[in-house]
């Protein structure tokens, strides 16, 4: 399994202000679904940060997202390890397949793959 990117998720009600502030550092909006907005570096598109008010289809807001090349293999490995699955594996309408797992530090990780 290969990690494609890691994105911190900041719980925020200040989307426009965050976009403006991080724009000063070279970030540009690359996705905005209303409840989540992702900004990326124009020079390195994998350098990203997301801001979300709430997760629209999950019970909690994840602390970070890890995109992998095989989300089903990641899900199997995590389940086999006995780690706590916070949100089950499912396909989302915006084109990702994902699940949430709690890491040893208590952080919620959104593990995803694009379909």
Automatic annotation (TrEMBL):
<dbReference type="Pfam" id="PF00903">
    <property type="entry name" value="Glyoxalase"/>
</dbReference>
<dbReference type="InterPro" id="IPR029068">
    <property type="entry name" value="Glyas_Bleomycin-R_OHBP_Dase"/>
</dbReference>
<dbReference type="InterPro" id="IPR037523">
    <property type="entry name" value="VOC_core"/>
</dbReference>
<feature type="domain" description="VOC">
    <location>
        <begin position="2"/>
        <end position="114"/>
    </location>
</feature>
<protein>
    <submittedName>
        <fullName>VOC family protein</fullName>
    </submittedName>
</protein>
<dbReference type="InterPro" id="IPR004360">
    <property type="entry name" value="Glyas_Fos-R_dOase_dom"/>
</dbReference>
């Amino acid at each position: 399994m290969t990690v494609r990117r890691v994105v911190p998720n900041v719980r925020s009600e200040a989307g426009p202000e965050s976009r403006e502030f991080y724009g000063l550092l070279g970030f540009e909006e690359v996705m905005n679904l209303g409840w989540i907005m992702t900004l990326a570096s124009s020079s390195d598109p994998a350098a990203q940060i997301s801001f979300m008010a709430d997760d629209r289809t999950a019970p909690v807001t994840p602390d970070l997202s890890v995109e992998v090349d095989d989300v089903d293999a990641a899900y199997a490995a995590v389940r086999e390890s006995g780690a706590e699955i916070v949100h089950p594996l499912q396909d989302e309408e915006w084109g990702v397949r994902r699940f949430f797992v709690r890491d040893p530090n208590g952080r919620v990780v959104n593990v995803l793959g694009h379909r």
